[in-house]
TrEMBL record:
Stretches that traverse the bilayer: none
Full protein name: YggU-like protein
Family: Belongs to the UPF0235 family.
Gene3D superfamilies: YggU-like
InterPro entries in UniProt: DUF167, YggU-like_sf
GO cellular component: cytoplasm
Species classification: Eukaryota, Fungi, Dikarya, Ascomycota, Pezizomycotina
Pfam families: DUF167 (PF02594)
Amino acid sequence: MAARNAITIIQKSKPSSPEILQLRCHIRPGASKVREGVAAVTDESVELCVAAPPQDGKANKAVIEILSETRLQILGVAKSDLQITHGMKNRDKTISIASACFRRGKDAVDDEDLVALVKQKLLSEEAS
């Protein structure tokens, strides 16, 4: 069985379609407000703690808010650029982000640098 990476870039079949950056996350709902944020970044997943309970999509909404620029500004992207694509009713989720959000206003960044940039942002949040 092949190991899955926590952060991957998915190339679209059409050259005109944007690339998608995928984060594989494990969510810990019901955490205290103090622990909210990135708990760990491993090779397989990004572990996030959210204070919201896992009912009626509250934890899913909290995950998007934590990763977006709204509260903790971990990734610094708009909420509309983030989408939970797998795991809506599961603690293991896949979150998709258009890679163009990270490339706006910057010189061309290759895929490896983009993955490293996102991982660095997540790790810096984990340390704080």
